[in-house]
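Protein modeling request. Please complete all fields; requests missing the sequence field cannot be processed.
Requester role: graduate student
Desired output: 3D structure, token encoding
Chains: 1
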Amino acid sequence: MDIHRLGRATARGTAVAAVWGIASAALTRLLMRAIALVTDGATEFSWVGTVGITVFYVVVLLPGAIALAYEPGRLASVLFAAGVAFLAFEVLAIGISDVAAHAEGLTPWRWAGVAALAVAMVAVYAAHVTLVHRGAVRTIHTVST
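Delivered output (145 residues):
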């Protein structure tokens, strides 16, 4: 194992996961607020919750990003896919429970708004995962030269 290469892959994987995790957390937090407005839910968010979401978005894809930056292959892809699956599970579980708590009495227009915002959130998560993957894999070309 090349320690220098591992160090560079760790730095690159961490940077990619952090940059896109922070960006994704900021965008999804805004969309969460919009959903709360549409469903007449609580629109106040704590800084602790926001930081927790941000850390989760970074940490859940970090092992896969580092593995992909070091050496893309089946094991790295499985590790990254596990992070993506865990992220998707948590996002769906929390999102469904939050909307269900305020869903009673929503008009069709409000449901349409919730659906549009949910699609926007899915797009943000898809971009998050794609950009972390691309950034980590692109590292191989610079790390191995």
